[in-house]
Design a protein that fits this description.
alpha+beta, five-stranded mixed beta sheet, 31% strand, binds zinc ion
Amino acid sequence: MIAQRTLKTLTKAVGVGLHSGQRVELTLRPAPADTGIVFRRVDLPEPVDIPVSAAAVSDTRLASTIARGNAKVHTIEHLMSACAGLGIDNLIVDITAEEVPILDGSAASFVYLLQSAGIELQKAPRRFIRVLKPVEVREGEGRKLKWARLEPYQGFKLSFEIEFDHPAVTATGQAVEFDLGSGQYAREIARARTFGFTRDVEMMRANGLALGGGLDNAIVLDDVKVLNADGLRYQDEFVKHKILDAMGDLYIIGKPLLAAYSAFRSGHAMNNQLLRALLSQPGSYEIVTFEQDSRAPQGFAELGMAW
Ligand SMILES: [Zn+2]
């Protein structure tokens, strides 16, 4: 059986929020089968649980934010991406502030944390959302065009294309495809960092954003080049980060997808619209389990286990 997974033990991390610059502590805790991923604001007078779901996404400017009442958690996508990449279904995330720590700007630190705690197989089957019909969202025209699409696929693969008119980005690959069944998430995707342009930073800071951002948690570009002394971690790190983000944004649906995702210049907002479009179209998906590993897509039984 392809079983649900949680952690063997709890694990902790301390960092700062990318946008708030606030110090924050995270505790990742094992959770029973069918809990899903739940953020718990333990700093509030009464702790508030915010279960992750497409409908809980309240803001998608610059990052994915979930909310329940007045309680929020910003920038959940990199941790969600690590959970998607390692196939973690059930997790309680205690958090002491409004934003997940940015750590090194990628999902690699979260992968390391989750792997260090160990992955536990549970006595309940993983429930997958199998996409049955193509679903697409699209916006703008010409140079403003963006779109994202889900299509039926026995497994989970993503292809992403960006179009940045910047010498340091155009010099690298602007399109990439990744198949989760390859087992290469930790090596090929998780280490890709978020990126930002110095020309945007001043305006963002004036608006109280990117206060925790810098060269140790982002790729920073001026008008011509990458400013980080060590350069890029992957030749096509920019577009790989978009795959990383999309995996996190899509995992917010609450279950692993069996689908081919493709996107052109999509972002957090459009990824969430795509989930809502899928959920609102009757007959566009079904929930499936795999009683025998051999029936599951290639590589899915081993996800995240081979370290
Ligand atoms: Zn990101």
